[in-house]
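Researcher: Structure for this, please.
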Amino acid sequence: MRINRFLLPLLYLCATLAPIFIVYSETPVASLHGKFVDAESRHPIAGLLVRVASEKRDSLYPDRDFAHETETDAAGIFSLSTPNDAGTYYSFALMALHPRYQARLLRFDMSPGKNRYDLGEIAMNQFLTLQGSVVVSAGSAMPARHLEGLVVRLKMHAKSADFFRAAAQTELTTETDNQGDFVFTELYPIEYTLTISENNVIIGYIESVHPRNSARFTVPLPQLETLHGTVVDVQGIPVPEAQLYAMRHRETPHGHGALLAVAQTDASGEFQMHVLETEPSLLSVEVGKKGYFTTVYENIDIGAEPLLVRLEKGVAITGRVILPLNIPADGHYAIKIFPADAPLQSAMHPMALQKPLLTKRFPVTEPTFTIAGVFEEKYAVYVVGDGIAAANIEVDAAVTAKELLIVADERAKTLAGYVYWADTGAPMRNAVITRSWYPWELEPYDMSMTLERFETETDAQGHFVFENITEGRYQLRIRAVNTVFNETTGSYQRSLIQKLVAIPACGDAYHIYVGRRDGTPYRDTE
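Model: Predicted structure, token format:
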């Protein structure tokens, strides 16, 4: 067969390029090997679920995506792999789970060029139990036959233990048997608050208990005391159907309080509730009714004279808003109420939250609003919402009778920019950017753990953006990690790099440069 000489160059080119289509690259992986055993008997644990996640070098927070998993065999041995690219990862985390054992989270440093890790024996502790008995205290009016079916609750103490929060149930519930006995299993070696209730009334309370494998303890039920009184308005007129909540406060920073009992006033404004015997300094009563201001009374002495509660009736603020054009018809706006003299500067400290007194949302299709239940005082009334720049007006609720008009027709802006390493000019990826916030961006229930919405990360180009920004000046806290391999220790050393800048939200993209010289010693928290 003769080949056309004009096709020879093309055939030669195809033969030359052919290997390009079959060559491919794989992400380097490390193989992990180990054995799980019982901490006491040292017997192997079969069927234990092992998960692994590689943690990124340039991530401020551990990036634990447990995408690879396996189970131990009859000898308790496991083998699995995880990504091990030295330019991307610096450590890996193992999560071990089994129905009879306390979950474990372990971290191991990676070394460049090392592709096999023999982890040896890893001991697992069995779950703990908590066994107890409810007994009637001397002088208590509760007969023994009522010890069956009592509701016993455990609530984990609020300590800084992210691992336990992720692996264990924060609350557990069981019931007593006909002897008043109860038992909890699958517990961790941490403290709990224990309560015992009957018909939604707390009749027993221990702020701190610790599970033990064998030790049994008793929970005495003290005599309930009667708290009674009257709820009236500022003119002394009885207030019927007011709700009262008796609260027991915690004694330690990590313990928990409890709602002891709930009552409602009758037609004469009178109430009566049975409350667990409690020190006055730990007992408060919250009283409220729709249209009235909620009142909280602290340091309640149950044995003192009847409680006289005064509730003040609120007034209403009505108004109309003018919103920007082209706002989606299914959107909402919110009316937020602040004291007129409240400082409304931007802030970044979680403990310096000037939160609104009241917040109420309305559909954008309803431009009129009513806010009921405010004092006859002066307020700053704000209009906010997605795509809406915040606008406000001052109101004197004591004298204002006409409908207010709030013009909020300015659209929200964006605050965006790029972050670079100052020494190389390279984009800073995975940097955490936290911006300050204004009080009108908050909700009454906000706390430090709910402020993550003011935080974002830079992408591969070092770009970040915050949407729905009202024009103003904002602080940006930039945090990144500089990771260097230490030849002496054979592990990675990480430094936390921080920078604080203040910029206005003007719609331009900022270019921010951060140096490595201000790094501080940094250690990942498990």
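Researcher: Any notable elements?
Model: Residues 128-221 form a domain with the Immunoglobulin-like fold (CATH 2.60.40.10). The first helix runs from residue 8 to 17.
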